[in-house]
Design a protein that fits this description.
The complex is a heterodimer of chains A (425) and B (106). Chain A is of the alpha/beta class and 425 residues long. In chain A, 30% of the residues lie in helices and 26% in strands. In chain A, α3 packs parallel to α11. The longest helix of chain A is centred in the last third of the chain and has 19 residues. About 4% of the residues of chain A have low confidence. The longest helix of chain B has 15 residues. Classes of the chains: A alpha/beta (425), B mainly alpha (106).
């Protein structure tokens, strides 16, 4: 049966329907409230904007972000590969302030009191909330690579897995590498942020080396037994474009490093490099771990997929890379943006005393460059399944590129421009 | 009239009839899954080659989406994505975009 609301809604899409629906009154059913969003990345910035937009300004939103500007992880590999600059991947928070009326505070949240519904700021003071959104991204399990414990070691062996100064540091090391040097990148065991990211980085570094330091070598040390994402497309690109230059070693988990000699210590082997880019294993961002939220395997936040609310902690919604992923769901910026919209819709219902939508749907697209111009993609659609209470991949939907292409390279850059605007403009 | 007031009216209607999330909100939520690439409310950023969806006739969008689904419409990625949505969901999405103002008015 088609409910009255659906008939009216579908009718409203036609001109006649639209005139027939001149409203006698508007609004009034949506409650206000104050939502604090922690973290202004792909998840948090999107949540802040959509809460303001969908509540038509009724819900007050405060965004707490430690950095002065947004710097994107997606496309940051092109900065390392030398075809983009930091300013190309940096976007201001001014749009959220001026266009959407979000109160953006540059600060850090040091504690969450979920019982009192308040957070404490590093600069002092507290903020009360009706609903809290945590979009803290990832932090690293440094203890699994003991040699990287200190800040000097982390500067010398950059991860560049959070875009910003680390991205610049890795680019400088690549530029300073002698022709004939070895650029080694390590991939942690899945799950980690951006599954195809390490392979993209190795590919664009190889492109740059081919042109500028052709005697060099790019080595991928993968803790996994095989390429984690877009395998066929990456392997074909490596065969076609970087044969003899790029080497892939599966089952090569980095257990430790010797910083001074830039040596990666594997279980049975040691690998000396000129540039060593170790991407450590990861978990939910520190603030999630420090907020008393339930972490699965001490790493990821378990959430309710109807609202993105943390399991056992009402009023705290968690987005993005920090959550325990649903089956086949990647930790991607695109996905975090989709989590944010699911959460924003649910929060507005909850603030109004209603149940969130019972059938949410999210989808992912993820582009990776395999040289300075050509890209490949993976896509998926995930629908809420009442039986498992998790969003499950829709069978028959999604897939990967037929082949790498410059057309998809252009689409990848357009994707970035549009998603940055969808979050921040 | 703006689509916004229509949506507000529909939300009221849903609340009055005691329904759960109204179809206007379901449509809004579903259409928001397209915005990463096609822009907020279907208006892509200037200088990008993405198809604008805001203000398109419902039938135009549905034809295109159904073409992706049955393979008659060429695509790099849309043929994969569209298969994740039911026909009813695609109708809601196309209706939502038809009610938007091209160019991204609030």
């Amino acid at each position: 049966m088609m409910p009255l609301d659906r008939r009216r809604f579908l009718l409203a899409g036609t001109a006649a329907g639209a005139t027939a629906l001149l409203p006698a009154c508007a609004g009034g059913t949506r409650a206000g409230g104050h939502v604090v969003v922690v973290g202004g990345g792909y998840g948090g910035a999107t949540a802040a904007k959509y809460l303001r937009m969908w509540s038509q300004g009724r819900v007050q939103v405060t965004l707490v972000e430690r950095n002065p500007t947004f710097v994107s992880c997606p496309i940051s590999n092109l900065v390392i590969g030398g075809t983009k600059r930091m300013e190309d991947i940096t976007v201001s928070y001014d749009g959220l302030r001026s266009k959407w009326g979000v109160r953006v505070i540059q600060d850090e949240v040091v504690a969450v009191d979920a019982a009192k519904r308040a957070i404490s700021l590093k600069s002092g003071g507290t903020l009360a909330y009706d609903r809290l959104v945590l979009s803290p991204g990832i932090d690293f399990l440094w203890e699994q690579i003991p040699g990287l414990a200190g800040p000097e070691a982390q500067a010398a062996i950059p991860h560049a897995w959070k875009a910003g100064p680390q991205t610049v540091a890795l680019r400088r090391q690549l530029e300073a590498m002698p022709d004939g040097g070895v650029f080694a990148i390590s991939v942690p065991k899945a799950p980690y942020r951006c599954p195809p990211g390490p392979y993209e980085r190795a590919s664009v570094v190889a492109t740059w080396c081919k042109r500028n330091k052709p005697k060099s070598k790019v080595l991928i040390l993968d803790a996994n037994d095989d390429v984690v994402s877009k395998k066929g497309l990456f392997v074909k690109a490596w065969e076609d474009l970087y044969k003899g230059m790029l080497e892939y070693r599966p089952g090569s988990e980095v257990k430790d490093v010797h910083v001074a000699s830039r040596t990666a210590v594997l279980e049975f082997d040691k690998v000396k490099a000129d540039v060593l880019n170790v991407i450590p294993p990861q978990r939910a961002g520190d603030i999630a771990a420090r907020s008393g939220l339930k972490l699965v395997n001490n790493r990821w936040v378990e959430i309710d997929w109807l609202s993105m609310e943390a399991a056992g902690t009402p009023g705290v919604h968690v987005l993005g890379d920090a959550i325990l992923p649903a089956p086949t769901m990647p930790k991607s910026g695109h996905m975090a943006n989709q989590h944010a919209k699911l959460a924003a819709a649910a929060i507005l219902e909850l603030l109004a005393g209603r149940a969130p939508s019972p059938d949410p749907l999210v989808m992912n697209t993820c582009y990776s460059f395999v040289d300075d111009k050509s890209a490949i993609h993976v896509s998926s659609v995930h629908r809420y399944d009442p039986a498992t209470k998790v969003v499950q991949p829709v069978k028959g939907a999604g897939g990967v590129s037929a082949a790498r292409s410059e057309q998809e390279g252009r689409i990848a850059l357009d994707w970035a421009t549009n998603i940055w605007a969808d979050m921040l403009a | 009239m703006t689509y916004r007031t229509a949506l507000a009216a529909l939300a009221l209607l849903a609340a009055a009839t005691g329904a759960g999330a109204s179809d206007s909100e379901r449509a809004r939520n579903l259409a928001a899954t397209c915005a990463n690439c096609h822009g907020t409310n279907g208006s892509p950023a200037a200088g990008t080659a993405m198809d604008p969806l805001a203000g398109r006739d419902r039938s135009w969008t549905l034809n295109k989406l159904n073409g992706f689904k049955d393979g008659t419409q060429q695509a790099t990625i849309m043929h994969q994505i569209v298969k994740g949505y039911s026909d009813e969901q695609l109708e809601l999405i196309a209706t939502y975009f038809a009610m938007q103002t091209a160019g991204g008015a609030r």
